[in-house]
Amino acid sequence: MIIGIPVYDEVDMLDVAGPFEMFDWAGFEIDLLAEQKGPKRFRSKGFTFNVEKTFADARAYDAIWVPGGEIAALAAIIDDPNQTYLKFLVAQAARTPKPMVCSVCEGAMLLAAAGLLDHYHATTHWAFIPCFAERFPDVIVAEGNPRFVLDRNRLTGGGISSGLDEALMLIQLLQGTVAAQKVQQSTQYYPDPPVTSAIPAPPPHCLLPPRGAR
Amino acid sequence: MIIGIPVYDEVDMLDVAGPFEMFDWAGFEIDLLAEQKGPKRFRSKGFTFNVEKTFADARAYDAIWVPGGEIAALAAIIDDPNQTYLKFLVAQAARTPKPMVCSVCEGAMLLAAAGLLDHYHATTHWAFIPCFAERFPDVIVAEGNPRFVLDRNRLTGGGISSGLDEALMLIQLLQGTVAAQKVQQSTQYYPDPPVTSAIPAPPPHCLLPPRGAR
User: Fold this and answer.
1) Considering only CA atoms, which of B25, B114, B138, B125 is closest in space to residue B64?
2) Structure pTM?
3) Which site from A144, A154, A188, B61 is most exposed, i.e. has the minimal number of CB atoms within 10 Å?
4) If pLDDT is split at 50, 70 and 90, which confidence band does A133 have?
């Protein structure tokens, strides 16, 4: 299996690193891709990583994994006059055989802006749920902030850490339950948070700026 | 709060990235440090990141976070004739006021090799538990593969993904329960793995090569 992860400056670290770690233990090949090669910044302060493939180097992926990131970075991608990132997503999703088209966290905003979630059930980080109704009304919002939502070949995750559960689900879909269980064992993924809390109510309005407002 | 994460080539990605993400949402400053500056390889294939501080640039840390990694990398650190990494850990742990001294996954092998877990309760990745009895017999092994073990100012985690629970625990210790709950909300850390499995029995012997056998 080969997974493509298109990244950008100010992408969320765990949205990328958590699934990358799990796919790696599953024996998958993983390509980090960006519009341009070179060092990229995670949104976590002071952490840079290196991308060696551009979108032109893309292979035939079994899944495309779209991570979330800073609001300004998402807005820049959505408002890009060339639509480079969104067109890459559309082209990948249009390939035959169809890849799994996945997002985690606010990565769903990018899939939605590319039109790839229209008429699909989907989720995102709890704070971005209002964006679906305001900005992408043809997306069918899954209730209750699930860890991930599978609808045909679309797999969308909730906020940040949801990517771990979602990555295990993708491994299960692509390689079977035993493969996912082995990754669970290798990564000792038997989570047990030391604190409890409730998912907050979402903000009243979409946190993304209006299209073209930057 | 300031956290120091001493890294090395072939360090585990999620051991670093998971806690880094959580500390960042807590508003902590985080320094990645290494013996030498420059690009480092995660053990996950094809992922490099950049380190801008050497051990000489270390600040006064509220916690030192020691990640695990490839067996050969651990053995190289333990067998290093200059003991550069282990001496750094010892020097940090000796500072006043005392920092929290933490490891995740096989990072416990490095703390143990530095003598910093002797007579402390501790844990590590399930596959490295036999190393305590064989190589570091003064470490008191916590039964049952807990997500993390707190003993005075030592906080040791289980395998890889345990670092997320352990990082939340460290945030709770340093900044309080409300701060940890806010990070749980920001990262939507309400995990729910889609598969279930049991932690395997550990291997019969320590996976580290005998000291000096490389």
Assistant:
1) B114
2) 0.97
3) A144
4) very high
